[in-house]
Amino acid sequence: MTPHRRTASADRPERLGWPFSGFTTGLLVMVVAALLFASGHWIYPLLRPCGAGLTSTGDGQCAGVSDGSAPLHPDPGISAILAGIHRENTAVEQTPADTPPVTIGVLIPLPSPGQDDDYLTAVRHDLEGAQLAQIQANRAQLIGDRPQVRLVVANSGENAQHWSTAVSGLIERAPGGSEDQRLVAVVASGRSLGTTRAALDRLTQQSIPVISARLTADQLTDAPPSPNVPLARVAPTNRDQAKAAAAAIKSSVSTAMVIQDRNPANIYADSLGREFKESFADPTHQLVADETFDGGGEGVATTMAGIVRDICDTRPDVVFFAGRSGDLNTLVRALPSRNCPQQPVRIITGSDAVAFANAVARDEPGLRDTLNAQVTVEYTGLAHPDAWEADPSAFPQASVTALRGDCDQWCYPRVHPDRDLAGELADGGIIIGFDAVLTAVTAVRDPHAPNTTPRAVSQALARLHGGNLVRGASGYIALSDQGEAINKAVPILKIGPDGAVSLDRLSAPAGEPCKPRTPPC
Predict the structure, then answer these.
(1) Each residue of 277-310: pLDDT tens digit?
(2) What is the rounded CA–CA span in Å between residue 433 and residue 275?
(3) How far apart (Å, rounded) are the C-alpha atoms in residues 371 and 360?
(4) Of 213, 308, 373, 482, which residue is most buried, by most CB within 10 angstroms?
(5) What is the mean pLDDT of the chain?
(6) C-beta separation of 474 from 124 below 8 A
(7) Beta strands per DSSP E along 398-439
(8) How big is the CA angle at 148 (ends 143 and 150), to the nearest 5 degrees?
(9) Cα distances (Å, whole numbers) of residue 320 to 210, 227, 261, 333, 481
């Protein structure tokens, strides 16, 4: 006799698919709801469509050109600045004027959301400085009052990968374009990358003048600097930073080691190291070692450990680091294990070290302890507010007031009363972004007759020297016939163990910064 087999259905309905208790189910529902709520602020931007004329980059931002009315990035700070630009643009359009307004473009490569907060802050500061310059030009009459100025912002995305979309939108807004808005110049920020160079090549080939803000590579276009390339610089180039660093330290040191990133993609590091070697070495100053590493490859930490041993062997008075801040972090973390712990190590580097200062301020592992162990780090800044007090004659007071002074309405403390003024200005981005747009406005507002076409602005930029200096908050700006700032003020900044940045001294490629009626400016 076959035994009777019970089936699941004989005793109870068979339960399919959800093997959890009611308590567990409720708990899971609450967890999922919490996750959806918490992540909504980043899921929504990824799904949000871009505005008219803009292209989704696939990472939560939009590439192309906005007058401030259409968002480009989910960061609230960027959105707030765009809203302010849109308000000012609307006011310009509603203001009756005999001379129609002109448009200045601001080309920025916004990073992917959540990927590089330090860099996002730097670019936000550049854009904020540009916005303040627009307000000052239109409302405070810092340089005349006509024509009024519109700003449009062109986002080229992470590492300027979408540069073609952004640049095409700017070209269409120049005279003769399909969306002619009398665009007369473009201010460019970001990093010195191949994609950045491609963007500037395209703009200058279309005879649209470019004023670079944060960009410091010695050559920003395929064509070398010349009077025929409509490109102007307000920040000190890598060459000028290296010269200013050498000028600042040569009175107190006689030997130096250079640590150089040999990655060919790092245009910034290549020119920085080359120019320091040329500026430092002379009959009384010797390069005792020339070390290299590949910042784009693997094993950087291992290489830095070997370089630290060489620091102990050669005992240079100063170490000049020609590389990006991420690799500087690696070098600094390797120094506490050096076999000469009593030997002081003095490092000086270029303007990219502002990100290193931010890492120290966040107390990233291994950095503060090193800076308390006879290691100092200095760098050449693009601008710093402490320099205004170090040598007041090197800085026009009207522009300094616009950034931090008492005023009735339109200076930075009034426009942004909720900001920590010292903290916001410390990285120099707001100052240099302000000066880049100020330079464009100076070229437009010729006291005899306004320049309202790209070619006319290009011609005017070439005349901004001598009695026509740009009165920038980062220092007086005199442009050479190749568009480079002549003997620009360069603050030498020191990073404290807590990440605080302070002015060590003010320098320049020739030692003393550019001032009115002073050669070679």
Answers:
(1) 999 999 999 999 999 999 977 899 999 999 999 9
(2) 25
(3) 9
(4) 213
(5) 89
(6) no
(7) none
(8) 115
(9) 31, 32, 11, 16, 30
